[in-house]
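name: query_chain
kind: protein
chains: 1
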Amino acid sequence: MITLRHILHPLRSTRAAYQQGKMAYYKRASERVIAKFPRQKITRCWCGGSLAQLLAHPQYGACAECGCYVNLCPPTADSLKEFYSLDNYWRLRQRLHGIPPIEKRAELYWSDGRVKYWLDLIKQYGPGSGNVIEIGCAPGILLSELTRRGYKCIGVEPDASVAAWIRRNAGVEVVEGFFPRLKLPSCDLFLALDVAEHSPDPIGFWKEIARLLEPGGVAIVQTPIEYSDYAQPFKARPEFFDGQEHLYLYTDKSVRKLAQLAGLDLVTIGDAMGGYLSQFCVVARRTNVLTSAFQEGATSRP
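structure:
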């Protein structure tokens, strides 16, 4: 006797084979894209500390001074703009990771509670109005919501195709360029959500935050931060050690050091969404007086 189970079995098998074939295609296509980008060798941490190679993740080193985990062979800074293009990153790369592409990303951020969490965080710590800059603003949903609430918003994306997509679909202003290597107006609220780990210039990144913020302005930075098990970092999320995308993975000590160098007061470091994202949100406020080095916009590495 043929049952429904017998009928569904080959259908499920066919669907599983199709999914496996599709993922194999995305993997090969992604590897071809990644292979064309030149890489560099990193021998010291951004803070100047020496690096000891991580046995579990040999492409990364742990800094002896600040504990930061550093990609030892990252893509060159000049190649990153092309990597973060609409097709390479927001479609092909996301599908490889089993994550919705940019066209369905806003829906994901609403359904998993991310947008609500960010808006609540801004309501708790940020100004009630003013100018907002968001680095890595795709798909534009957060800036769209903030614009609707009366904020004046500017987004930043490294690639022109991504910037154009956001302008067209989210209706917000987006500047093309790789932060911090571009000119932006001052702001009252600075947002970088899942971005800092992708930046090749941690010191320049944080100093530019401080330079852009008005006195009393607030920065909210969401990024992976290891705060307890420094010997086995991010063991619940080993995929954070992505040798193509993640250039620096931080500890609480390294974040505090960066904030101090930039002249920012740390308000809090807390679990993002109660640990759901396995990341942390750093809330910092710009002090009223910056040192002359910051006023001159110095962003060089030590």
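note: The first strand starts at residue 51 and ends at 53.
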